[in-house]
Design goal:
Number of domains: 1
Shape: extended
Mean pLDDT: 89
Structural class: alpha+beta
Strand content: 35-45%
Largest sheet: 4 strands, antiparallel
Number of helices: 2
Length: 145
């Protein structure tokens, strides 16, 4: 079925010093744990699912700031797919590529937006590259006709 919910459980942003010079920013998202979940959609309607616990970090180098976000994502699927995902995680802490792509894309999207807002509050450079408008240098030819 797909993703049913997304919740932040922890937000921590710390500026250690003023940003000066060249700054490198690295963003990392990781899945920390996967557990079985059951969702109730009414008195007689239950759906099996999975709770993904994640952590996202934006690290500003040289040691200028850190933004840490943690939370959970609720994923719904049929009982067999949930069982397969959980057993693969318990054996090797691995996920199938389609599930991993869907889950990590949502985590990165939501966390990058939140990290952008937190960086603004701490007067830090944005942790993601924002689009910029540049002045184009087109030569115009004179036409005398």
């Amino acid at each position: 079925m797909g993703i049913l919910g997304f919740n932040f459980l922890k937000m921590n942003a710390e500026r250690l010093s003023a940003p000066v010079g060249k700054i490198q920013i690295s963003n990392n998202a990781s899945i920390k744990d996967i557990t079985e979940a059951e969702f109730n959609f009414g008195p007689k309607s239950k759906q099996s699912g999975i709770r993904f616990t994640f952590q996202f970090t934006s690290q500003y180098s040289p040691n200028i700031a850190t933004i840490e976000l943690a939370g959970e994502l609720l994923y719904s699927a049929d009982a067999k797919k949930c069982k397969d995902i959980l057993s693969a995680w318990k054996k090797k802490e691995k996920l199938s590529q389609d599930v991993l792509t869907e889950v990590l894309n949502l985590i990165m999207m939501r966390c990058n937006v939140e990290a952008l807002l937190l960086s603004k509050e701490l007067n830090l450079p944005p942790p993601i590259q924002l689009p910029r408008i540049t002045e184009s240098q087109h030569e115009t030819k004179d036409y005398i006709g």
